[in-house]
Amino acid sequence: MSKAVVAVVGRPNVGKSTLFNALAGERISIVEDTPGVTRDRIYADVSWLDHEFTMIDTGGIEPDSSDIILSQMREQAQIAIDTADVIIFMTDVRQGLVDADAKVADMLRRSKKPIVLVVNKVDDFDKHVMDSYEFYNLGIGDPHPISAAGKLGFGDMLDAVIAHFPEPDILDREDDTPRIAVVGKPNVGKSSLINRLCGKQRLIVSDIAGTTRDAVDTRVRFNKKDYIFVDTAGLRRKSRIQGDIERYSIVRAVAAVEKADVVVLVIDGAEGVSEQDAKIAGIAHERGKAVIIAVNKWDAVEKDNHTMSDQIDRIHKTLSFMLYARIIFISALTGQRLGQLYEAIDQVIAASTMRVGTGVLNEIVAEAVAMQQPPTDKGKRLKIFYVTQVAVKPPTFVVFVNDKKLMHFSYVRYLENQIRQNFGFEGTPLRMITRQRD
Ligand code: GDP
Ligand code: GDP
């Protein structure tokens, strides 16, 4: 199920990070074990009432001369327009309405994206709510006064945000056409790959009425099957701001990954895998998406007998949390092995939606337990009653045990590996949940 994406746009110092941190709460720590990603706080899971959404902070503007600020804000706003379902446009009651706000508001209004205008730093509602009225002049609707620092006004603001979410039946499409996000650092060849894959069909953009999100999706037919590449507009537009290119590529990846079933992580084969690739890979991993690592520019790599296995070793080392990913070597330039990419997409989707029966699963687990005894502590041994698969996308297993405290991380890993060895699941992460049963 894909979650709505909400982007926050606004001048430096209006309080975007403060709002972000206040809403993200502790949930952000869930992703602790993925390198790099959380520290940047570029995105967070937010839940409000029974709604859950992903919030992205397009921020990262260096306060500099006002010219640069405006052009960076435009860039930010454009990314929000490309990627988000709803945009929070944040202003500051203390600084009042400034020219840059008006210019960015114009741009947002023309995009026809749902906008929620937020006026921050209204720390004392009784005294200062009136001051937020001047922001009606922006012409993008009612100002919602908040205090990000004091956590005031959040309820009304979030109600306004949620009111703009696409209808659930649109979000959860009955259509089971695979949705694929092509992500990666700048210049690895994402646009070239999309152009190759989509060919002339590039121009055929689905036009389901009322779904802004589909305007950037491209539907492709291959071997009599349909595929949808999501967020392809984001690929076409290149950031001009050097310093923020990395942040922007992550923001875009978050939004695209959220809407996809399969993530194709493109890396530059000529350059080799890097830490920045790991950050983007981490997003797909956390989101539980099926993953294919496409090592691109293979035409430009000088090869001998070891080149491929050396690359695989390096990828496994750098993306050690993702040993399950499929790896293929391609060239967007020559078209080498692009057919295999579609095959891989079919295969990893099959893996991420596979269900294993409880009977056969427990035979495997019983064998695994016999081969390697569960851990003990102070004379008490972990007992596994049974294991059952409770969900797909990603496949999720609940392990019922006598005492949760006895379950070690390494034993969970062991069980996961046994399940993988017996059933496959190549290309998809697995979730393992331990439950105590008395
Ligand atoms: P960003 O650059 O938009 O991400 O802004 P920050 O979140 O870093 O906030 C900029 C400054 O405004 C910081 O000093 C915050 O403490 C302050 N600030 C943020 N929200 C509020 C608020 O609701 N009231 C007041 N008085 N100050 C705030
Ligand atoms: P993006 O920023 O990830 O979308 O990357 P582009 O698609 O714009 O490609 C960046 C550069 O790499 C361009 O100069 C492409 O021509 C080049 N490129 C892309 N794919 C390949 C490939 O398979 N082989 C070679 N040799 N060059 C490639």
Automatic annotation (TrEMBL):
Positions annotated to bind GTP 2: 184-191, 231-235, 296-299
Chain sites annotated for binding GTP 1: 10-17, 57-61, 120-123
Pfam name, any one: KH_dom-like
Matches recorded under PROSITE patterns: G_ENGA
Keyword GTP-binding: yes
SUPFAM superfamilies reported in the protein's UniProt record: P-loop containing nucleoside triphosphate hydrolases
Domain called EngA-type G: residue spans: 4-169, 178-353
Any one GO molecular-function label of the UniProt entry: ribosome binding
Single GO biological process annotation from the record: ribosome biogenesis
Sorted UniProt keywords: GTP-binding, Nucleotide-binding, Repeat, Ribosome biogenesis
Transmembrane segments: none
Subunit structure: Associates with the 50S ribosomal subunit.
Family: Belongs to the TRAFAC class TrmE-Era-EngA-EngB-Septin-like GTPase superfamily. EngA (Der) GTPase family.
Role summary: GTPase that plays an essential role in the late steps of ribosome biogenesis.
Protein name: GTPase Der
Protein's organism: Shuttleworthella satelles DSM 14600
Origin organism lineage: Bacteria, Bacillati, Bacillota, Clostridia, Lachnospirales
